[in-house]
Amino acid sequence: MRDVVSLVQGSPIRVEIPGCIVRPATGADLDSCNRVCTRVHGHDRGGQLLDAITQGAALVVERSGRVAGYATSVGYPATPLRRLTTI
Is residue 79 helix, strand or coil? Predict the structure, then answer.
């Protein structure tokens, strides 16, 4: 199995995209994130996502009031590695 992983280094660019809001993921986002993941990858990562939410290591992006993507830490929450899924 292969997975795309990105290592991002440096300071965040602090750019806001109009109409998009990035915030910490909550348990209420789990179903929406699973739908996004299934649409993009053909399956969900519900267990991994729930673990990341519990650890405070998941973010969602909302566009027009709907979850349009999410990111989770890979490995330890403090690492700069993230798995990003977006439509």
Answer: coil
